[in-house]
Amino acid sequence: MKWIRERDALIAQTLAFVQSVTGRKDDVLQPEAPAADATVTVEIVAVEAVAAEVEPSQAPLPPRPAPLPPPRASGDFRTEMQARIANFRKHQERFEREREEYCAATLTKLRAAIRDASGPPAEK
Length: 124
Description:
The protein is an all-alpha fold. The chain has two helices and no strands. The model has no long low-confidence stretch (mean pLDDT 78).
């Protein structure tokens, strides 16, 4: 359960940072009081921002986004869906046919085994 204490400490630290930046306390974001048996130690670290001057000519250019594919025509979408549905139906029909063939073969073997086992009764 160490991760729970670490999570609570991170939440408390983040809340303290937000309060130090905004200069006010927010009652809505106050974390729940930790359990009596758990002790949470929070260390507040001061963060300083360093400003750097960059000349506009040396500033890196943002990467260009990848070109978007052309929008589909509604007819293309419809034909693609019809083709997918047709393929699905073919697969379902093939599975149905294979099940029927397997069932017929199994019943044939069962009937043959019953006939062989029920041969002429042995005389005593």
